[in-house]
């Protein structure tokens, strides 16, 4: 299994970056695109990295925010066949405060597959919405809202789901932003490897973040985090977690059998 970062907030190899996330995944004999960043940059970087997006067999949108689905139109232009799996709530209206951060409603939806609950895509590839997940720790919505009727209310992130990949005895969970709470997600899945953002960038380094890091460190999991975790937060958490890594634009992670 190999995961290549097409775009993320940072780069250590000189590739251009943006606030967003896009991963190219090769697993179980399939080529998968997970999220598309906020623009077409993921596609430009894919070309620079010799990743053929036209050969992608399926795509997954982790949730309905622009920095993960803003490049969907570009992907549909490049790739003429791959279905795109997303939550049935992905096109609901989402906001940061009062600023719209949802998806482009003009997108052609003919290749979108809308999911809820548990969706088995193929052997070893399953999507989970975790709508009934126990909230061990609730950090709140961090100012992210959704439209309910005619008023804005705190987002409940029902539009977010997670991709579990099972291959060669490994359970690898891919999460875009972990809005439903990374601790809650970890308690639900207990994967061997977790790749994705923790949504900690608005938590100042200190006792609260230390407690979260220590809790995550108790799981027998290797973490590759990015995007909304925050660089300062990552460096702080490294003091309390032995298996925490940061992946940047252009970098790849290979998961091998023990």
What structural keywords apply?
single chain; 258 residues; alpha/beta; seven-stranded mixed beta sheet; globular
Quick rundown:
The protein is α/β, with parallel strands linked by helices and 258 residues long.
Question: Strand arrangement, largest sheet?
Answer: 8-5-4-3-2-1-18
The helix content is 10-25%
* Shape estimate: globular
Structural classification:
alpha/beta
Strand tally, please?
A: 18
| Order of secondary-structure elements | EEEHEHHEEEEEEEEEEHEHEHEE
Major sheet description: 7 strands, mixed
Intertermini distance:
13 Å
The rounded Rg comes to: 17 Å
Mean pLDDT, as a whole number?
97
Counted by DSSP, the helix tally is 6
Task: List the quaternary state of the chains.
Answer: single chain
Strand content: 25-35%
Q: Which ranges are low-confidence, i.e. pLDDT below 50, for 5 or more consecutive residues? A: none
């Amino acid at each position: 299994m190999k995961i290549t970062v097409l775009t993320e907030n940072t780069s250590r190899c000189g590739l251009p970056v943006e606030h967003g996330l896009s991963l190219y995944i090769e697993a179980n004999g399939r080529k998968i695109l997970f999220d598309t960043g906020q623009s077409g940059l993921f596609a430009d970087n894919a070309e620079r990295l010799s990743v053929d997006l036209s050969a992608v067999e399926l795509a997954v949108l982790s949730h309905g925010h622009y920095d993960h689905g803003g490049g969907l139109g570009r992907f549909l232009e490049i790739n003429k066949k791959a279905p795109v799996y997303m939550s049935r709530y992905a096109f609901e209206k989402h906001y940061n405060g009062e600023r719209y951060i949802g998806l482009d409603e003009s997108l052609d939806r003919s290749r979108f597959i809308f999911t809820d609950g548990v969706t088995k895509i193929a052997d070893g590839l399953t999507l989970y919405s975790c709508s009934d997940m126990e909230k061990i720790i609730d950090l709140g919505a961090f100012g992210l809202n959704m439209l309910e009727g005619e008023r804005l209310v705190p987002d409940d992130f029902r539009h977010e789901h997670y991709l579990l990949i099972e291959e060669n005895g490994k359970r690898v969970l891919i999460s875009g932003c972990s809005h439903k709470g990374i601790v809650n997600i970890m308690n639900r899945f207990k994967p061997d490897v977790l790749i994705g953002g923790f949504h900690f960038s608005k938590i100042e380094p200190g006792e609260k973040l230390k407690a979260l890091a220590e809790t995550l460190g108790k799981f027998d999991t290797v973490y590759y985090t990015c995007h909304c975790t925050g660089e300062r937060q990552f460096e702080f958490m490294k003091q309390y977690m032995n298996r925490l890594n940061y992946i940047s634009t252009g970098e790849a992670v290979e998961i091998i059998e023990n």
